[in-house]
Known about the structure:
The protein is an all-alpha fold. The chain is about 70% helix and about 0% strand.
Amino acid sequence: MDVLAEGVHACTSLPVGIENSALGKYFMQSLFLRVTGAQEQKLKCICWVMATNDYRYRYDLLNEKHYGECSEYKHKRGIYVDLCNLIQGYDSKFTPLDVLTDLPITEERESELRSKWENEIDDSRRKEAEHIIVEKTKKGVSLDQEDKDEILNNLLRKLYPEKEWRERLFKEKKVQFVKDIVQGLIAVVEHSPLTAWNYREFLFFKEHWQDVVNEKQLILTTNEFLGSGLQMFYKQLVFEQRNRIAHNTASCLKDIPTLDTLADKGYVYKNYFFRFAILLVIDEVFTLMFKRYRELGLRQL
Length: 301
């Protein structure tokens, strides 16, 4: 986010008229390369910190792991898995979802969610009680109102499944995690020349960002951190564009994009705001994971 904010500050003095549309396109490409480059360097630094602290990992990194520029998703996933494994070396009970534990959520919001969740369970138990009463009646069991109340109260007195509540809370934190990233991105670029140069694309992003970046695509298991849908968008929106700009292949191609590409339903997502959002989600995941790695590592000293 800092690199993106620097880019916004750098272009604030530029005029946004039609005469500068070509400059705007060039600036967006340059800023995109800076953001992708910063992330790649961050991942390399994470690898070297881990290699400095763990000699066995250093051997594997130098001899068996080939992460290159850390630009492909499979390389990012490899580093993520390495982080998980080393963290679990410090804490065997660690799961990647644990990094969401410290994310802030207001007491009011948590209380609201808890109340809603408990009401859903109570409603489910009332339906279960009704089903039990119906089944007993069908079998010829005579039940008065006191018996029916006892069946219902026995179900309502059961303890709430706290494991299910933690999962619900984690889901809410994933929703808030992604939402905060997107809102942060919008806040940084909204009143800048970046949006003036790409106003239609920005409005589409504000309305449809959840089509690409959402909590369902934030997996956070020990061997994967993005869902298949977001992996596909990363490859098509970020990785391919990164290579196209970095190696200047667009300059030797004609009639790109083709009419078929323009007609494709996915083409509307090929704008830089979606690309920045995907990169920021990946960046925040690694930031939280590396923070937990450093905290656990310091406790071992």
